[in-house]
Amino acid sequence: MADIVPDDVDEARLDAAVQVFKLLANPTRLRILQLLGTGKFNVNTIGARLGLEQPVVSHQLIALKLHGLVTSEVAGKARYYSLVDPDVLTIIRAAGGLL
């Protein structure tokens, strides 16, 4: 049987993709990403919209930000979160279509 993985696969990029898919395996993170696909929100608004406690939202946003899926900006006293690249929603939608 032929080798499925080409010889020129960039292992670092492959590992990064694995980390993103692990990150997306969390339903709370998926819900946050889907909400952020509709606009910029602060932690309290995300929590209120999704029925989550503020510490839960903060914890998940930290993970998403560390992996480069969300970014934040300060406006006044609030920090607003948004998607770095909306194409992450395409991955989520495609995965949902497999079910």
TrEMBL record:
SUPFAM superfamilies xref list: Winged helix' DNA-binding domain
Keyword field contains Protein transport: no
Domain HTH arsR-type: 9-99
InterPro entries reported in the protein's UniProt record: ArsR-like_HTH, HTH_ArsR_DNA-bd_dom, Metal_resp_trans_reg, WH-like_DNA-bd_sf, WH_DNA-bd_sf
Keywords: DNA-binding, Transcription, Transcription regulation
Keyword DNA-binding: yes
One annotated GO molecular function: DNA binding
Entry-linked NCBIfam families: HTH_metalloreg
Protein name stated in the entry: HTH arsR-type domain-containing protein
